[in-house]
Amino acid sequence: MKTFFTKALAVLLCLWTGLAQAHRIVTDQLGRQVGIPDKVDRVIVLQHQALDILVQLQSMDKIVGVLESWEKQLGPEFARFSPALAAMPAPGDLTSVNIEAVLALKPDVVFITNYAPADMRRQLEKSHIPTVAISLRRDARNQAALNPSLDNEEESYTQGLKDGIRLIGAVVDKKAQAEKLIAAFEQPRERLGKRLAELAPAQRKRVYMANPELTTYGSGKYTGLMMQHAGAMNVAAADIKGYKKVSMEDVLKWNPEVIFVQDRYPKVIDEIMNQPQWKPIDAVRNGRVYLMPEYAKAWGYPMPEAIALGETWMAKKLYPGRFADIDMQVLADHYYSSFYGMKYDRPN
Question: What is the overall mean pLDDT for the chain?
Answer without folding.
Answer: 91
